[in-house]
Amino acid sequence: MGTVKRRHVVNSTDTEPARAQVLPVDAIHIGKRYRKDMGDIAGLADDIANHVGLLLHPVVVRRVGRQWQLVCGARRLQAEKLLGRKTVPVTAHYNMDDATALRAEGSENIHHKPFKLSEAVHYKRDLLELIERVAAKQRQREHGKTAPGRKHSGQVAHSDKRPRCRQGRQGDGHRARLKRPRPSSTPLTPSPRSSASCSKTWTAPAG
């Protein structure tokens, strides 16, 4: 197999390392760009504002004389302007020559590979499932804060630890014992009819 030769993208004259800093949006000069179709800038701006909140890849600029010139990130810069932001995070190069800047612009656009259709479908499915799980946990936390009389797991009510059904049966038996009549001390006298029936004797039949 052949070996791959590595070439440095940054010119040898660019001895000063790039700096991460923040620049005013109006201070960046766009200049000539080879990309004419900017695509869905509104969709990119919505993604930056509502989903990510910031630029994952800062805009790349270089110092040319007294001005900052855009190298990479024209669509990101347009999205920041559409959001009304006055500043933008950048990666600033101070000694990048024209050839290196042109190669950097081409590399970012030529070698960028979007998702295939099947990959995009799987990505969207997993993203929606993750968003739903996060929303469900948030709803559960809010419900736990607002539900009245909610007891946390592991807490025991100290007022009465016995089950209600057992307590009810014990209470009913206690009340039944209280209503049971006591034996009287006065002896009972049999009625005449009952004493007469008891005085009869039994005679065997004639055989």
Fold and architecture overview:
- The protein is α/β, with parallel strands linked by helices and 207 residues long.
- It has a domain at 19-110: Conserved hypothetical protein from pyrococcus furiosus pfu- 392566-001, ParB domain.
- Helix content is 43%, strand content 13%.
- The protein contains 6 helices and 5 strands.
- It has helices spanning 41-52, 74-82, 98-110, 117-146, 164-179, 192-199; strands spanning 19-24, 28-29, 59-64, 67-72, 87-93.
- Helix 1 crosses helix 2 (74-82).
- It is elongated.
- Mean pLDDT is 76; it is low at 1-12 and 195-199.
Name given to the CATH homologous superfamily of the domain at 19-110: Conserved hypothetical protein from pyrococcus furiosus pfu- 392566-001, ParB domain
Helix content: 40-55%
Q: In the CATH scheme, what's the topology name of the domain at 19-110?
A: Conserved hypothetical protein from pyrococcus furiosus pfu- 392566-001, ParB domain
The span between the termini is: 133 Å
CATH class call of the domain at 19-110: Alpha Beta
- Overall average pLDDT: 76
Radius of gyration: 46 Å
Extended strand count: 5
Largest sheet, in brief, is: 5 strands, mixed
CATH architecture of the domain at 19-110: Alpha-Beta Complex
Compute the number of helices.
6
The helix/strand class is: alpha/beta
Short recap of the structure:
The protein has 207 residues and is α/β, with parallel strands linked by helices.
